[in-house]
Amino acid sequence: MSVRPGSKVSNSTFLLTGFPGLEQHYPWLSIPFSCIYAMVLSGNCLVLHVIRTEPSLHEPMFYFLAMLALTDLCMGLSTAHTVLGILWGLSQEIGLDACIAQTFFVHGLSCMESGVLLAMAFDRFTAICNPLRYTSILTNTRIIHIGMVILGRSFLLITAPIVRLKFFHYCRRRVLSHSFCLHQDLLRLACSDIRFNSLYALALVICTLLLDSVLIFISYTLILHSVLTIASREERLKSLKTCVSHTCAVLVFYIPIIGLTMVHRFGKHLSPVVHVLMGNIYILFPPLMNPIIYSIKTQQIRNRIQRWFIKQRSSRG
Hints:
This protein is an all-alpha fold.
């Protein structure tokens, strides 16, 4: 289904954008996107299952990884119905209430992932720079408190601007620029006073995503300084290897955000397909790659998954 200039859209619905100009290829495009969503759901569920069922993984590092996997799983679930709905030819329309709900979860989960990555950076900082007090600092109770703070910060802070979207008057052509709803996309279509939402969103990005990235950078600077004081080369490498997975997860999360921001800010002359593609990379790349990264780079996760597959194969035999 394509977005046509003459499309009739009711006052309570919006048209989502698939891949403009590629409508005839949607049946083929739906195959890789369906596979990606299947990998997102199965990969993150597998990580959660492994951490839950393996007692040796009941440690702070893996509790935070479970938070990351749960966040990625929810991100995949929050956008699958609109992205795949367009490619499967089911529906290209979305109601205002459903769009606002999706906006709430997309932005809330994105903020939550940033917070979890910061918590994981603190975990690595504590393990390397203060190993003797690691277990006394990151107790189960404290990890639960950190998780509640991340959850509260992620969803409570975005409630005010998201709720205001319900009361805006949308007088412009109701065609969104992505296959899912975003706060800035709805603001672009509103004819009401959006100054509060615009300023609040900017302040929120600075206080969450930008601040988190700065703190992660500072933590790794301190980690590197601490590692360089270790006399043994083998011990230095061993310490740095424990940070590889997290460093990859940070890059996988922040690079698509920077790319999408640059495209929105400076890429107005680019094809709409580029905007849609960058939006899908922002939504799908971290949830797809994080299970792969941690399955390959984390020995405990890799060994447990291998044992699980061997067990399943032997039980069938």
